[in-house]
Amino acid sequence: MTTTRVRMSKESRREQLLDIGVQLLATRPLEELSIELLADEAGISRGLLYHYFGNKQDFHIAVVRRAVADIYAITAPSDHDDPVEQLLASLGAYVDYVVDNHEGYVSLVRAAAGGNEELRGIYEDARRALTDRVFDRADGLEALGVTDSPATRLLARGWAALVEDTVLEWIREPSGLTRDQLLERLAAVLPVLIVAPA
Amino acid sequence: MTTTRVRMSKESRREQLLDIGVQLLATRPLEELSIELLADEAGISRGLLYHYFGNKQDFHIAVVRRAVADIYAITAPSDHDDPVEQLLASLGAYVDYVVDNHEGYVSLVRAAAGGNEELRGIYEDARRALTDRVFDRADGLEALGVTDSPATRLLARGWAALVEDTVLEWIREPSGLTRDQLLERLAAVLPVLIVAPA
Q: What is the pTM of this model?
């Protein structure tokens, strides 16, 4: 019992530290996120942090996994009955996340797209999980004419690239597009990709 | 006259060397493209190549600029009257290029998305040029209901991200999608993004 309690406590402390890490990542690129910075912010020693995270790379991976889990959680399908409203709600949550965590998000995308294979793996898995979720509503999909196949899953993943790229560019320069207009255009694309042609 | 002729000859020789560089890039990542390799392939000395290209980074930049110019040229609007046929022809040329030059293309995307600012600049400029070209057909666009605005240009650029990501993933795993089906789905998305809602 004691052992379990101690282990839980260590895990829960680690989770708290990851919360801080994710907050720090929001406003700075991954390469500026150091164990020293986390130690200052959390008010504990570097030595103790190395006990939780091993080394800087492991710390980065843990923070990125947490950030990705946060994105997955906040974009979870809401309880809207209308699938379009549901999609707009998930997209809106994603856009707000990227706005609020812009620096870190951009650096994660770049690290994953660049040479870091472990980050690329986490990033690809997350994108797959996010878009595969589109096909989870087994009840409603058939009525909507959506085909669940490797082809439509491939196209849904491409849609995620459109969303990410457009949102990042829109944050840089909104180009006269309101948030709602952006969401509507992006949402309107998905059926074109995954609904079987008549 | 002599000076001009000699200069032209140097430029044209440089162009020939870039042709070879682009061919070498087709089947290997950018980081494996060396001046030594080009020297072997072209049958001339490394010293002479440094005379043409300065250093490895300048050589890479020159090859990438050439590859990007090739993509721009082969995807030029054909003389189809029907804008959908025209779009399918340009998209088809792009897909075939990426299939034929896969290794180099992927490495270019990664280098641009990763940390190389100069390559990122060339890549972004190329994407902008490719998608801005969508709005060049001033005659036909209005009849199609296309709005030329900063917002639709932003969305067209997002469409390019969808195209690139989907094509690269499709090459890795076609997922039961034929080339024509792929082209049709990708082409069908563009109007959703750039045609004003009724």
A: 0.89
